[in-house]
Write a structure and sequence with these properties.
By secondary structure, this protein is of the alpha/beta class. It is built from nine helices and eight strands. It folds into two domains: 132 residues, no CATH class; 155 residues, Ribonuclease H-like superfamily/Ribonuclease H (Nucleotidyltransferase, domain 5). It is 32% helix and 13% strand. It has a five-stranded mixed β-sheet, with helices on one face. Strands 1-2-3 form a three-stranded antiparallel β-sheet, with no helix packed on it.
């Protein structure tokens, strides 16, 4: 029997020891090479776009543009802008985030990095924000799957049995459903399972919004696999629908199943119950997208994932939501 990829040496190419042994200058050079990869590590002014050889202020580890005299650093204009910790801390945070296949809590991250909980919370959310995919024009095709997983609907029963109510009939204002849309990999693809995933946060699994999602993100005529929920009934007119009744079977006799979406649901639940314990609706989309990213990269080595996340972090703009979060403001002061 062949060894599973995740158990092989190819899956663990990232060495935490190497990051820990990095000097501050080596971490600086890594940030510089990833940030300005197109110019082979040569700084590009974020203000005027000049690529001339800029002045380097060694005592401050900053650059000064020869054209507009703007002072900037390797993190200026990115989600790490105005950073106050050594660069190696951010590399370690990304490495820990990468290796935590079912996410990592801010409390654990604060302990591992020896930083305040507030710092770890904002840092983890900035990393999650960099993973968001805003490509609205991309349409799924081939064989797709859809399914939903509910969040925020649990009501703790009263201690005394005579005070308990039927929780199915209680209004749950915080109840949400995470809809996962996944495109299956074909035999010719390098990966296995699903190749791309999008997530959507709805108040319920209803036919109107499901139909809107399908028409916007799935090419007409594609094959869709879903369960027996009546929310997917209206898709029959435009798509090749394949339904599976989970009360009877997990996969139909003709291969109809939504196991890739169920895989997303399982990992999401393990993140929720095993690591985070409680997820608020405000940042539910960030957590759902994180699991989508982890599912899509499950066949990549941790070094490939680390490099990809670091590149996304350094190519993402300053976070309007989490920059100055605990001060209640969002402004940028270049360091």
């Amino acid at each position: 029997m062949a060894q599973h990829f995740l158990l092989s040496s190819k899956a663990r190419e990232l060495s935490m020891i190497k990051i820990l042994m990095m000097s501050d200058m080596e971490a600086f050079e890594l940030f510089k090479n990833v940030r300005w990869n197109a110019t082979n590590g040569e700084p590009v002014c974020p203000c005027c776009g000049s690529v001339k050889k800029h002045y380097f202020l060694k005592t401050r580890m900053q650059f000064r543009c020869k054209e507009c005299f703007h002072t900037f650093s390797v993190t200026s204009g990115t989600i790490f802008a105005s950073h106050k910790k050594p660069l190696k801390i951010y590399l370690l945070a990304i490495a820990l985030f990468t290796n935590a296949v079912k996410s990592i809590s801010a409390l654990q991250l604060s302990r591992d990095l020896d930083v305040q909980y507030k710092t770890a919370w904002v840092l983890s959310h900035k990393i999650r924000e960099s993973l968001m995919d805003y490509n609205e024009d991309e349409k799924f095709e081939g064989t797709c799957e859809m399914d939903g997983v509910y969040v925020g609907h649990y009501i703790r029963p009263k201690n005394q049995i005579d005070k308990r109510v039927d929780r199915r009939k209680v209004h749950k204002p915080n109840k949400r459903v995470v809809i996962s849309l996944r495109q299956r990999a074909e035999l010719s693809d390098e990966t296995v399972g699903a190749i791309k995933t999008k997530t959507f946060i709805l108040k319920s699994e209803n036919s109107n919004e499901i139909k809107e999602i399908a028409h916007k993100y799935i090419k007409v005529g594609s094959s869709i696999h879903a369960d027996e929920s009546n929310a997917y009934d209206d898709l029959t007119a435009h798509y090749d629908m394949n339904r599976v009744n989970h009360q009877v079977e997990y996969s139909g006799v003709y291969g109809e199943n939504n196991n890739q979406s169920e895989s997303f649901n399982t990992r999401f639940r393990r993140m929720q119950y095993g690591n985070l314990h409680k997820i608020g609706n405000l940042y539910l989309s960030n957590y759902a997208n994180e699991i989508a990213y982890r599912e899509d990269t499950r066949r990549k080595s941790n070094k490939e994932i680390f490099d990809d996340i670091l590149e996304k972090c350094l190519s993402s703009l300053v976070s309007n939501e989490f920059c100055g979060y605990w001060q209640g403001i969002s402004w940028l002061i270049n360091e």
